[in-house]
Amino acid sequence: MRKARKFSAIFLTILLLLSTMNVPVFAEKTADLEEDRVYIVNDDFEDKEPETAVEELPESDGYSVVDAWNKDGTVKSEPRIVEDPLGENGNVVFVEDLGDTAVAVVKDIPRQDKPFTVELDFMTEEFGHATKALRILDGSTVAAEVELRQIDGKDILGYSIPGGHEILDDDFQVNKWYNIKLLVDPENQEATPVINDVVMPTYGWRFLNATGISRVLTMAPGGSAISSYLDNLKVYEGIDDSLLNPDTPPDQIEDIEINSEDLSITLTGQVMVWVGVLILLIILVLSKTVEQAFKLVAPVEHKMSFRSGRHII
Ligand SMILES: [Ca+2]
Ligand SMILES: [Ca+2]
After folding, report:
1. Distance from the CA of 208 to the center of ligand 1, in angstroms?
2. Domain ranges across the chain
3. SS3 assignment, position 266
C-alpha cells in the first residue's frame, strides 16, 4: 500500500512537471512572433472618439477622404469613426457613401518596395458591386485590389486581374466581418490574397507600372450610395513564407494562429491534468487521515478502515 502511494506520488510529480513545461515554450514562441513583426501601420481606432470625421483626424495619422461630394455638389458623404454596428470590433471607420461618386478612405504609408503584408477587417450591411474592400496603389496607380462584384447573379469577393476577376469567395455575406490580407511582393509585382486565413493563389498586379506601394484605401461603389466599414488596418514588413509554402518549419511568423490553437489545447490539457492530480492527492490524504484517525480512536476497527481506504483508492 505504502509503496503504491510512493510510486503514484512520483508518477504524479513527473506528470505535473511535464504538463507545466509545455506551456512556456508555446507562449514564448507566440510572443516572439508577435514582437518580431515590424509594424508600419497598426490602427484599431480605439483611441478615437466616435463621430470623429476621418477628415478631422490628425494629419500625422495619414488618413484622408476623396470624392466625398456627389456630382451635383449638393450631398457630402462623411466617413467617420463609429462604434461597430455588429458590436465586435469596438470603434471602426464608417466609409459613408451618400452619393454617386466613389468616396474613399485613403491611408498614406511610407512607400514599400520590399515584400510586406497589408490587412484589414471589412464589413458591409449592403452588397455594393464595385466596392473596393482593399486597394493598394503606387501614388495614383492601382497595383492590386480585392473587390466586391456581382457575377452571374452571385455576390463575389474577387481579385482584379486584367479584363476580369479571380474569385476569392463566391458567396460573400453582408453583416459579417472579413479579414482580408494581401501578401505583397513589389519586386515581382505580385500579391497573394488571404481571406479569413484561407490562402489564395498568388496573382500578378493589376497595373504593372506600379513598382511600389504608397497608399491603401477602401472605396465605395461609384454610381450607387452603399456604405461599408473597416477596422484593424495593419501594414507590416515581410510576408509569411510558411503561408505560401506550408512545408516550411512551424516557427515562421504567421504560424501564430496555429500556435495559439496549440496553446489553448495544451492549456486545456494542463488544467485537466491539474484537476486530476488534485483529486488524487485529496483522496490519498483523506484515506491516510481516516486510517490514522481510526488507529487512534478505535484500534479494533483498524482493519475495517484499512479495507475501506483501500476500497476508495
Ligand atoms: Ca476597432
Ligand atoms: Ca457611391
Report:
1. 33
2. 2-29+260-312, 39-237
3. helix
Which phi and psi angles does 273 have, rounded to 5°? -60, -45
Query: CATH top-level class for 39-237?
Result: mainly beta
pTM: 0.70
298 CA distance to ligand 2 middle (Å): 90
Chain segment 70-117, per-residue pLDDT in tens: 999 999 999 999 999 999 999 999 999 999 999 999 999 999 999 999
Q: How many CB atoms lie within 10 A of CB 53?
A: 13
pLDDT at 243: 85
Spatial neighbors of 168 by CB under 8 A, at least 6 apart, are 146, 156, 157, 158, 159, 193, 195, 200
Exposure of 112 by Cβ count < 10 A (0-12 exposed, 13-18 middle, 19+ buried)?
Answer: buried
Q: Give the Å distance between the CA of 90 and the centre of ligand 1.
A: 4
Distance 228 CA to ligand 2 centre (A): 11
* DSSP conformation class of 301: G
